[in-house]
Structure formats: structure tokens, C-alpha cells
Amino acid sequence: MTTFNFEVELLQPVIISQQSATAGAHQSLDYLPGSLFLGLAASRLYAELPADQSWLLFHSGQVRFGDALPATNDQIAWPVPLCWHYLKGDSPIADGCFSADALFDPSELPAEADRQPVQLRGGYVCMDGVSVIPGRQYSMKTAIDRSNAMAAEGQLFGYQALEAGQRFRFSLSTDDGLDETVIQKLVTSLTGPARLGRSRSAQFGKARIRVLPDAGPAPTRGGRENHELVLWLLSDMQLLNQGQPALQPLPELLGLPTGSRWLPERSFLRARRYSVWNAWRRHHDPERQVISRGSVLRYQLATPLSEDQLAALEAGLGIHIEAGLGQVWVNPPMLLGPRPVFTAARETAAAQEIIFAAPDTPLIRRLQQRVAARAGDLNGQQHAERLFAGLCARVRDARIWQAVAPAQPLESAPGRSQWGRLRELSNGFRNRPAELLVALVDEGSGVLRERSGWQTAFGPDPEATLGNWLRTQLEQLLAQGVALDRVVGHLAVLGLQPVWQRCCEGRQGERT
Q1: CA of 292: how far to CAs of 201, 263, 271, in Å?
Q2: Can you point out the beta strands (E) in 264-358?
Q3: Do residues 6 and 190 make contact, with C-beta atoms less than 8 angstroms apart?
Q4: Which pTM does this prediction carry?
Q5: Is 510:504 a contact under the CB 8 Å cutoff?
Q6: Which alpha helices (DSSP H) does 119-263 contain, by range?
Q7: pLDDT band (50, 70, 90) for residue 379
Q8: In the sheet that 228-233 helps form, which strands lie side by side, from edge to edge?
Q9: Contact (CB, 8 A) for 347 and 353
Q10: Is residue 259 predicted with pLDDT exceeding 50?
Q11: Element (H, E) at 161
Q12: Engineered SS bond to 414: which of 107, 364, 453, 476, CB 3.0-4.6 Å?
């Protein structure tokens, strides 16, 4: 098998909707599916290739376009495995990295009797434990009536998109024995400027793709005792059982030896369903019912797998593997114990830090405390300013969505009492970020609950409210190990300034 690795740089926001429906709210995927690159290459090559070569490249499964996953520090981030749990009230992430001591697999290490385990869902993890959450943004749009060049009546809509400036990496895998000239032509067709996703003619979708000489560390295969097989799904997987979609990953559907058993009590999986829009035929393809990426499947094998059988698993499972489905990591070392096992990259960095550590004296400790406090405060202020700018932008969207006249106040927006409550909580929960978040988002008594001003809607999606948006942002910051008390405190100070009142009244351009 030959593999070519590519990096995608987003020059504009890219819309990759979870569903291809034209009505309702559009939620974006946090990765670029392989079907996107298959379609890109087909649009540039299909017409000029003979029918047999077109079938070989785009339909046979001998050429596989992988999903593009987030990349950071020259390494790919993988979907967080669903077997990872942490105890409610604890933080699974510290300093932007997953904490191996805080995470556990409940099928191998039971949780404490008096504490509730919480499953990790969403996000990505690098081999050294670094946590990655791709940035997404929401934009409100309106259709234009060509007869009068004004906004069309009742045609307000919105898009969620991946933010510009991010980088993703994907691989193109081919079976041995294929014509090298045709494969090289395929690689060339994927490089250079590209337009990806929806609404490509309206300030979305511009990207640049380049071939990588080296994709960084590749997934390694670990050993497992007692003939046990562990599969970590790196992409969605669609299985068929007698021609019908199957959401139970039975051993015979994966080509495992006769007598092998699936271990559902030790597996963790989720499923979803969607239809792919085929732009060439201008029609939906058949609905796909898939086992979601991040799922962890465990099997008890009747006999050990040979190298050829393991390679066949790694080439892809199920159908639509040409579009990136069915990619798995076989026996990942990260998941072979009750707690995650990360690479030694962080340990090496820690060792270097110890070698060059400052002298341990009272003066040095005091100076280090002052530097850390100042850095943390500055970091919190930067995050707060970003959140405040996002809230102001959504207040402007809310004024448009609710048709509030210029210079008229948005009555439902949070007022001084709500901002004051945020400030009180930031002071009351210092150095307790998880408890602070609960106090903010609790459905019964949280500050961001309904009828508190934070339920103000800024779009057609029922979830598009100021409170839901702020809650999502704070949850992401908590997952990154950011000090929430500083962020919320700075945010409350900004909210108590006159600029918030001017924004709610549609006068943000005026001076105080």
C-alpha cells in the first residue's frame, strides 16, 4: 500500500454541514470528510480519464481518500475515543493536554462508588495527549430579491463553518500494483488552490492543499494478550448485513476468524444517519447509517490474526472506504490499558524543563508566582475580550433576527444584574473552574438559565441563544485548562461597561 499525505490550509471559512438538508439550522462538522477530496479530484479528472480508470480511482475502493483531521505542531489529532471517562467535577484537561491520571476506561477500571463517571465526547487528541478543538463560527445570511436588490421576505438563514486559518491533514492510500502515472496525475489534481464545502461563491470555501514529504508520527500497532482485538474508529464506518445497514459490528461483518466474539460490554459506540448530496447528479445518495468516529470496539478472537489480516483491517472496513469511511486504528497503544498511554514527547519536554530549572529559593518562587499570575490574568483577559466581541456580534444578529428598529433597545438582552451575578460567581469560585461552570450552566439555578436574559435568540436554530453560545465557549475553555474564574471575571467587567448598553441599543458606533 502506498500513502500520500496532504495538508489543507483554510483561507476562508469552510461550510461542511452535518446534514445536506436545505431547511433548518446548519451545524458544521469539525473535520473535512474524505468524500470532499474524492469529489474535488473527480471534478478535475473524471471527464478526461477512460471509464475503467475512472472506476478504479473513484469507485473500486483500491484508492482511498481519508478524512482531513486537525493538525497541530506537525502532528495529526485523532477523534477522542468514546471509552475515555472522567469523574464528574474533575477536569480531564490541564494546560491544554489530557490528563492520563484523570481519565479511565470504566470497562477495565470501575469508577469510585460515590462519584459519577462522565464520557468524553467530541474533540481530538494527539499522540502526546495534546487536546485540539477546531474553531467554528456562525454567520447570518439573507437571500436577495433580484427584482428590487433588497432582502427577500422570509429568507433569513445561517451557516456554521470551520474558521479560516486552520490546518487539516489527510492521506490518499492506494493498493499496490496500480498505474503510477495515473496515481501521480491524481496526486497533482489534489494540490494547489481549491474550493471546498457549501456556498463556495459567497466568501466561503477557499483553501490551499499541498503534498507533505512527511506526515509526522504514524499510528503504531500494539500487542494484546488473550487474542483480544481493539479497534478505534478514526472515521465513520458503515456495515451491511445481507444488504441492509447494520449498527452491530459483528465479527463476521469485519472478516474476523470464525468463532470470534464481539464484546459489547467492553465496547463504546455511537451511531448517526445522514444523506450525502451528489453535486454531479444534483441528487442525494442513499442514506448512510454509520457507527460514529471515536467508537472503540473490542473482540475476542478465536485465532490470532496474521499480518495480512491486520493489514486488511487497516485498509478499511465496511463500504464507502473510497470516501474515507471505515478507517480504524488496530490495537492502539493509547487504549491498551485502563488509563490512556501517551507518547514520551511530553515526558521529554518535562525532563528538559527539569534540567534547566531555576534555583529553588524564596525569591525565585515569589517571582515565578507573580509571573504566572500576570500571565494567567493576561490570558484570561484575551479570552474574555474574544467572548465579549462574539456576544456583541450575536446581539447584532439578534436585533436583525427579531427585527428591532435602530436605536431601540433589545429588551431581552442581559442587563447589569446578570453581569453582576457573573462577577460574583467569578470571585466565589476562584481556582474551582469545574464548580464555576456548573454554577453558570445549571438548568435550575445557573446564571445562564432560561428567563435570565441569556435566552435571547439570534437565529432560527432553537439552540442559537446567547446563553447556549457562551456555555459552549466556556466548556471548550475548561477542556483546554483555561482559568475560567479569570475569564468570567474579565467578561463581567466588560459587560458592565457602556459599550454593552450601546450594542444592545444598536448604537455601538457612538462615543461615550
Answers
A1: 31, 18, 5
A2: 271-274, 277-278, 283-284, 288-291, 296-300, 328-330
A3: yes
A4: 0.66
A5: no
A6: 180-190
A7: low
A8: 261-262, 296-300, 228-233, 328-330
A9: no
A10: yes
A11: strand 150-162
A12: 453
